[in-house]
Amino acid sequence: MNSSEALVAVNTTTESPAAAFAHRFYYTSNFTWEYLTFKYHDYRYVYCVDDVTIAGEQSYLIGGFYIFLYCFFLMLSIPSLIVISRPPLINHAAYKLMLSVGIMDNVVGFFFTFLAGVYTYIGTNYCDNTYLLIINRHLAHGAYFIYCSLVVVLALNRLIELKSSPLARRLFSGRRCWLWLIPPVVYGVVGTTDWDLPTIWNSIYLVYLFEIDFHADSPPVTDWYCF
Hints:
Number of helices: 9
Helix content: 55-70%
């Protein structure tokens, strides 16, 4: 398949949200390699042909700074998590949820800060590191979905506790609180699938972007359903 044929194929599957959804449902329901790669690999036939590559850019200073930031705040976070995880605080539902939020906060930071630093340090780019970037971003999306939904559960717990302590005890007391982690985890698993398009780290602009290439006449990435 040459670049023009690939571009036509990509555009054919992205004419409408319905078409994009049908494409996504077909591949995820068949559990093929597409489960973790979505349509980004198809764009290789558009952007990475005839020995042309989208170059990355190494920055030891900025990459090292990102890595340092993650490690620094991780060291500050760990003592707080240890305190929260011990009695008597962990006996309260709010602190169980806060512990879960704190753990996921560091997991999200690992993907969005630490790995961003690593990618900047080595100068990753779409053409040479396609599957590394794609799989990482799917996992990062799943982690971020869990984190955000856990914050919502924590807010719900605080609201119910303020309005009705008896109701809060019925819903969150004891091990019942841990059951509230199930919906966020399920939501996170959905976030790792093709229902959402992951962003790709751009080591030139130093940011996660949906677009792969910004050069003139480059085809846009429009193959998503929820945006």
